[in-house]
Amino acid sequence: DAGADEASRAACAAASYVAAGTGEVAARALQLHGGIGFTWEHDLHLHLRRARADSVLYGDAAVHRDRLCTLLRRTPASASA
After folding, report:
1. Residue 34: what pLDDT?
2. 79 part of a folded domain
3. Domain total for the chain?
4. Could you give the CA distance from residue 27 to residue 30 in angstroms, rounded to a whole number?
5. Which of these, 1, 10, 6, lies nearest to 76 by C-alpha position?
6. Is residue 13 part of a domain?
7. pLDDT digit string (tens) for 7-47?
8. pLDDT at 79 over 60
9. Which structural domain range is residue 12 located in?
10. With 70 as the cut, is the pLDDT of residue 80 above it?
11. What is the predicted pLDDT for the residue at 1?
């Protein structure tokens, strides 16, 4: 329990960083591979679909950043000094 607040903030920061990059990386990979990336012969369409589904299921970067801001506001002033 002693580090629960810090762990929650770290998890939110990591989730926001990953959520921001996942969709962009998958979309750029699709552009890089061209037409083959959107066909059944390549697994790239699965990664793109997973990235989009994860942002709906677990929240996008904005959701995690908002939660991080909420957690930071709840931190007592004496803990940050």
Report:
1. 79
2. no
3. 1
4. 5
5. 6
6. yes
7. 889 999 999 999 888 888 888 888 888 777 667 778 888 88
8. no
9. 4-74
10. no
11. 54
Q: Per-residue pLDDT for 5 more than 90?
A: no
Residue 32 in domain: yes
Q: Distance between CA 58 and CA 34 in Å, rounded?
A: 28
- Conformational region of residue 2, where left means phi above 0, alpha means psi within -120 to 50, and beta covers everything else: alpha
Quick check: is 21 in a domain? yes
Burial 25-45 (b: 16+ CB within 10 A, else e): ebeeebeeeeeebeeeeeebb
Nearest to 19 by CA among 80, 60, 74: 60
Q: First vs last Cα of the chain: how many Å apart?
A: 20
Structure tokens at 47: 């990664």
- Identify whether the C-beta of residue 11 lies closer than 8 Å to the C-beta of residue 65: no
